[in-house]
Amino acid sequence: MKMETDIDRKLLEREEYPDKTEFYIYDRAKQIFSETKGKKILLTDAILLLLYAQPDNPIFGRISMMKQVYLLTHEVLNRDDVQDGRFVPYYFGWYSFQVINDVWNLEFLGYITRKGKLNSRLERFQISERGKKHISQLFSTLPEKLQITIKEKRKGWDQLGCDGILKYMYTKYPQSIERSRLKERYKPIRWGRSKG
Known about the structure:
This protein is mainly alpha-helical. The protein is about 50% helix and about 10% strand.
């Protein structure tokens, strides 16, 4: 029987995937969990809160879904209270592999429904009855002013549509445009006096 060395143990304690997801052995994960201040709102709950704010109106397209989750977690909810979505600049601005995985998991669990052509603007994400029951308690514990803000913001983001929300994101968060395939379409306008 081979004895486990310190070097072998360090190699097994932590593994990191390309999307920066880290995996630990159970004992190390348990230790980290006990030392970490818990987040009040999970990313899955933030997605459900977003959909619950306008339950009869689906979000059209994965791009709009991703941008609305980003805006909800970064502009409306306290970022310290929400699980980190690990957003990175990607083909259409801020993108989170964790958010998209959570969306598929929520669909698998029956909390949201997805209809329409995959990866198009016709793809629709909507909260299901089961999802409403699951998230209604958390939504009702939020301060009333925050509930109203989430509803108003969601309505406004829906009205912007895909092009409007991309223009807003690229203007407000220029660092998100680094790897975007749409850089040329949404170039910032420089205002000023001309030389004449």
